Amino acid sequence: MLTHPFRLLTPALAALLLSGCWAGETVPPPRESVTSHFVLGTPDQITTTIVDPLPVKAAVLRQPDGRTVAAYQIDRDRSTYTDSNDYYGSGLGVGVEGGSNGGVSTGVGFGFPLFGGGGADRRSHSTTTSTLRFKVPDMAAYRRDWQHWVLHVDLDDGANRRSIETLPPAPPLE
Cys staple from 60: which of 54, 68, 77, 99, with CB 3.0 to 4.6 Å? Predict the structure, then answer.
């Protein structure tokens, strides 16, 4: 009885697909972003989250008349991510070989590292998630002209620094 060459390949392909579950998946770092919102149940509290390589050093809400409200709390959480183009973990390979003079042969192979891994092409970078908290001193004034307020943030790691400015969040519904 002749067996179709792809019939032998089917279990090997299934194993290959499952092998993707064996390898340790890496989670990409979060994207740089700035998000602000009012705290639910506390209509005069603003929370701003900034994801950036640089940590937040200081932050203020600038009112239309120039007065400022400093963030009363700044929390920073620094994470380091490592990328690698080399793979040194266990692996699974599937091969199919054939030619015009002979039949088709298939093979399945498993690979395991004998010595420690770690290639020369490893890059790491850090991301800081800074969480800022503000208390709006006059919600009536904020509701009236919040689009003229400015959220000013200074980022600084001691070697690099920059500032960003954006609108604060719209006031919550009354």
Answer: 68
CA 93/CA 33 separation, integer angstroms: 40
What span, in angstroms and rounded, lies between the C-alpha atoms of 40 and 53? 28
Would you state the CATH architecture of domain 30-80+126-174?
Answer: Sandwich (2.60)
* Rounded distance between C-alpha atoms, residue 43 and residue 136, angstroms: 9
Angle at 143 between CA 142 and CA 147, to 5 degrees: 70
Helix (H, G, I), strand (E, B) or coil at 117: coil
Model confidence at 62, pLDDT cuts 50, 70, 90, reads: very high
pLDDT digits (tens, 9 = 90+) for 120-137: 556 778 899 999 999 999
Counting every residue written for the chain, the total comes to 174
Map out the domains of the chain as residue ranges.
30-80+126-174
Is the overall model pTM greater than 0.70, yes or no? no
